[in-house]
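Chapter review: from sequence to fold.
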Amino acid sequence: MSVITIFCGTFCNESLLIREVAKHTGYKLLTDEDIAARASVISGMAENKIKNAFSAKTSVFNKFTHEKERAVAWLRLALAEMLSENVLIAGFTGQLIPREISHVLRICLIADMKFRSAAAMKAQKLSEKEAFALIHSQDEDRASWAHTLFRIKDPWDTSLYDIIIPTDKMKEDEIVTLISENLRSEVIRPTAASQKAAQDFILSADVEVALAKEGHSAGVSARDGAVTLTINKHVLMLNRLEEELKAIVTKVPGVESVETRVGKGYHQADIYRKYDFELPKLLLVDDEREFVQTLSERLLIRDVVAAVAYDGESALDMVNEDEPEVMILDLKMPGIDGIEVLRRVKQTRPEIEVIILTGHGSEDDKKICMELGAFAYLQKPVTIDVLSETFKKAKEKMQKATDGK
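The token string follows.
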């Protein structure tokens, strides 16, 4: 027997069709949620951070921490370990399976926008404009995923699938029958070569995770214990990087040899940097742009990753989307002021430590802020040493609270 993967647009009657295919074939259904849950267990990363890999939006901190890349590495390993014959993989993760594993029937379910919009309007009681915006956002996630994996902008590109099925133009039983008939094709039956490729997939996923743990990202392929690493960004000292990567990979069980090479992206302007996912994540909130940019650069020198917001509304959005650990917050800003930002942060994300840094506050302001849960209240001007030490203590407090959960 073989493997089925189904990638689909939303509001294409996909949920019912996936259940019917699993029921008709007797295949075990694995969803993105199942694989993300397993990836969370084996990695120690929070499941919501694993699932963030499916989103087109990337955290402002990702260029330093590369959480998205690490999440994809762990998803690939979880999938490789769970991959067996007679499974139906529904969602994003099925596209992680290498083409060398030929006993996979790759299905795409999609419908035209008119059909999808009508379905969204009915299911979620949306206006036509709201339905279109929702579907567009969800399609952006799928397009971003396809571009990340294949450098293809169209998630419905025919090169990615064996069959593309228009769910608005075929009946449910016809779709199930079509998939079942193709599942019996000789082309996708397991062979010794495809089963060996599945084993190679596990090894390459193990290697990718080993590299990610050490802050590295490279293309990985494996065949019969021989691993090839592809470096796709320019590096000033290539030989040193190659030796470091080889030292990591040779320790992975099952690796017999390691070869490195440069890829197509190596000659572009991007510079290869080893990433540090333990860097603390700080959000600076201040409407004095020159001050906050300078402060951000000085903190980065001290290995503190600082994102910047220039008003309270933006800060609250970033708290929800980017998950900072500590905030340094000004009080006097246009729109939502610092006290109101502090109040809302402590209501919704109490684990975030907030340091008030202001040049205009009063003793009454200080009292209110401390009662609301501020970690510290500092007056401008303040030395970078004092601010760094305060941030360090706030980070330690936040970490202890997180570890204690």
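Two observations follow directly from the output. The longest strand covers residues 104-110. The domain at 3-188 is CATH 3.40.50.300 (Rossmann fold).
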